[in-house]
UniProtKB/TrEMBL annotation:
SUPFAM superfamilies: Carboxypeptidase regulatory domain-like (SSF49464). The keyword Transferase does not apply. Gene3D superfamilies: Carboxypeptidase-like, regulatory domain. It comes from the Bacteria. Pfam families: CarbopepD_reg_2 (PF13715), DUF5686 (PF18939). Keywords: Signal. This is DUF5686 and carboxypeptidase regulatory-like domain-containing protein. Coiled coil: none annotated. Residues 1-18 form the signal peptide. InterPro entries: CarboxyPept-like_regulatory, DUF5686.
Amino acid sequence: MHKVTTYLLLLFATASFAQIRGKITSANGEPVPFASIGIENTYNNTSANENGMYELNIKKTGNYTLVFQSIGFKTRKETVNVTSLPYTLDINLQDETYTLNEVVISNTENPANRIIREAIAHKKENSEKAGRFEADFYSKGIFRVENVPDKIMGIKVKEEMEGDIIDSTGSGVLYLSETVSKITFEQPNNLKERIIASKISGDDNGFSYNTALGTYYNFYNNYVEFNLKMVSPLANNAFNYYKFKLEGSFFDDNNNLINKIQVTPKRDKEPVFEGYIYIVNESWAIYAVDFDIKGYRMQEPILENLNLKQNFSFNTSSRIWAKNSQIFDIRAGLLGITFSGTFTHVYNNYVFHDHFDKNTFGKEIVYIEEDSNKKDSLYWQTARPVPLTEEEVKDYFKKDSINTVTKSPEYLDSLDRKYNKFRPFDIVSGYTYRNSKKHNRYSYDGILKIPTFNTVQGWTFNTGLSFRHYDSDEKKYTSFGAKFNYGVAEDRLRVNGWFTHRFGKVGTFYLTGGSIVEQFNANEPISPALNMISSLLFKDNYMKLYDKTFAKLSYGREIFTGLNMGANIQYLRRKQLFNNTDYVLIKNDHDYTSNNPQAPNDYTTPAFDTHNLMKADIGATIRFGQKYITRPDGKINVSTANYPTIALQYTKAFAASDSKYEYDFIAARTYYNTTLGNKGDFGINLKAGKFFNADNIAFMDYKHFNGNQTHVNSGNSNTNAFNLLPYYSHSTNDSYFESHIEHNFKGYLMNKVPLLNKLQWNLVVGYHGIATPNYTPYHEFTAGFDNVGFGKFRMFRIDYVRSYQGSGYVTDGVMFGLKFLDIIQ
């Protein structure tokens, strides 16, 4: 009974706090979803919800002229005398009637093309009019799921979600949230947002991701960002991508002639929109857009369709057409599961500026106010411009009630008792003990992890123990633990441990130490899993290991926005290891190479003598144009600027058991990634370094380059590794210059080739090079295809590679990119 009463009160509050409210319907009585409602000649706007219900806040009673606008319907004005609040006004909208002048066959230009040319010619002017403003912003997002199966790949999915998220049919609301903020914007992309209120269904401690950041889509620009740069129908080169048809014209409430133009792609597979754009005659401003964005066109195969609607309102005083609402309807699917979502954005109370002070926009782009996620229901009833639907009210009520229960001490104790119960099988599978009140967690990893194989240790088994504590109030984090590694062929157990503590804004300390096996190239160019496959199936043991006993203390922090620095000092005892097994599963027609990377056929001579050494490192990373989001629980850096990143390093090796192992080393790196319009993504990574007094240093201290001899990689952007370079063939203790350049055309060329465009593959070209004093320069040239696969599963990449030493050809080969490798390794 108590729950029913609470629910009814919530519904009552939703209605009683409305100012002017009502329902918008069509001529046949159907709700008109997401219609725009505003007071004439102001920017006091709101939007109806998906059921046609609306609420418009006003400050006082009096006479108001309301404007109701929705794509496909006649704009309607209604003057009301509000004598008391709330005031109810239900509105019926009539279908828009379009007129089209008699078509005369002649050599004159298509009338739609003429209108679009005028809109393109005037887009800078129209964009600048609304290009600098302050406004109130509201966002609501709801994401649903349907047809959730009982199991996916043997994992019980429906059982875990049923009750809290989905019903017995496998349907329910996955995510519901709202945001209220104030935004300041200056074209083309200066945005500052102050979030006043944030609400997530079922989470009273989180912050909504529904913000203005990343959702300001301006069709006056040449490109509109949706995962990749989509070509705007008002781009300078729009006629290369679109066909336009004038479907008709109508007059709005201010006697402006509005032209409805159908937008059709010339080629289906390119990053283009389709639908309708409405252009105001004479001013050539955008009145509204209604576009469909197909998932395959933005290279998001799981996404089936995204419908985007924007409505603009006109103020006769400012003479500016300003966006008042923006609606997304999303539909996606995978493995038979359907996902759908609606995101509503309302822009309100515009204040336009001729210019802003130079300090208006800084590095902080979003500021989330303290306790913005603690606003009560009274606040939301007065601040929410779009009324909740019954589905949303139910979801808030259910999940917030569950959240209240699950955060109670009694529930946390009962949950801990449930999950902390020890079972005999936990010895094998692993065990975690929780203390939710104190935010502590103790974990044992078990011994069921998939073992790996290498020729030094044979089959290796791993487990670990750990402790974790996080204090959200003090923003402090502490964890420590130990990892255990046992090699069967070597018959040796190695143990290493770590301790990590973060002191809020002061920085983070790391203490690690113990005994491990490590690759001579500490960047680990070959993963244990891939090395195991190469060894057991082809008898190729590419991974070369040595024994490292160490203790290391590290510290890192952000000095200021854009500059991060870190330092460490470590003690090392390093010892050569040898092969201990010749085991193989399939191919056994040759011997394994030795574990000495410098002498693969010498099984007795060590690569180095056992020695002790101290090393100190200091490094800095500079991100030009770095911006950030300020949250009550910390700071999040956001890469929004089109600038390169620079990294600097200095290493000092000293106090060695033999002075020949001591050296100095300096290195620098710059990397840069950018999108070149709709012509794809360009990436470059340049590295350089120099050793001093390093003639006889240990081989693991050399500069090693990330080679590859397996013909398999992760299939991602390849600007940090080579494709056919043997792992240790060009290692150096002198100076070096390394370069990686890659351009992924993201379909720019392939989309224009008949038949090939149906594959939806992306052409990728690249170059990789090394220059050192001891070798003529090494080069690799690559050409291949990304986004390879079928349907919604595009997890592969294929590259053809040719390598040269100096001007001489070395070898060629095919590289297979498997994008799921990063998940399973």
